Amino acid sequence: MGKEKTHVNIVVIGHVDSGKSTTTGHLIYKCGGIDKRTIEKFEKEAAEMGKGSFKYAWVLDKLKAERERGITIDIALCKFETSKFYVSIIDAPGHRDFIKNMITGTSQADCAVLIVAAGVGEFEAGISKNGQTREHALLAFTLGVKQMIVGVNKMDSTEPPYSEARFNEISSEVSTYVKKVGYNPKSVAFVPISGWHGDNMIEASSKMPWYKGWNKEVKEGKFSGKTLVEALDSIIPPSRPSNKPLRLPLQDVYKIGGIGTVPVGRVETGIIRPGMVATFAPSQLTTEVKS
Predict the structure, then answer these.
(1) 91 and 56 share a domain?
(2) Is residue 243 part of a domain?
(3) For 151-167, how does the pLDDT look when each residue is reduced to its tens digit (9 = 90+)?
(4) Whose CA is closest to 153, among 189, 117, 187?
(5) What percent of the chain has pLDDT over 70?
(6) 102 with 226, same domain?
(7) Has residue 239 been placed in a domain?
(8) Residue 241 maps to a domain
């Protein structure tokens, strides 16, 4: 039996249409969180609605209303594995109207992945005073998410495509901003990616020969790598005291047909396992853990 992997929670944040859901969906697909048949089904449905480029995002955008508007309304929870961690991804909405949902999701995360779009004019719109890039980074830090990875997305749509100068310009500007917010830029990995084509997501891309990889320095040591998944593997998992009583702040309650009511949250202390008896506060309702 191999050693049980540690769980980490990440939140994917960034301006509307920066490619958060597509990047996240592609990652989940590549890391085996969803099968090829499902992706093909999404591809067909997306094409029928004239939104062919949304197939990966649809892994997350399960609500019909979201599919038709093409934006992420609620926080979607998906899981996949890396070589080191079990990762739960919370994909937070980028639309200003949905900021309240984004706060709920972010407060549960151990690390934030900030997606910024490198396309012409897109980065500028996101980082502007009216964009959500700044707001999301500030919210993440304020809500206690002290680790960050920056995915510079849509590298395929820079001028010229996969431009080193554009990546450096964006990295430098985002570095300055996240420092103002409270992050130490030295501890942040900047990864040039294409969430749609998959560049530097799992495998190093051949389209950016200039890219030598990301480096980060934290008190636990120095880390380096090339891809987004390697950056995820460099997250320092928080210590969750398992010898203390169970404390699990609830984030949401789902009603799932054929299963019933499923509470969702993050175990902060203690452990949870089938057969345990748990009590909800403040109602003092007691129930048995099923799975």
Answers:
(1) yes
(2) no
(3) 999 999 999 999 999 99
(4) 117
(5) 76
(6) yes
(7) no
(8) no
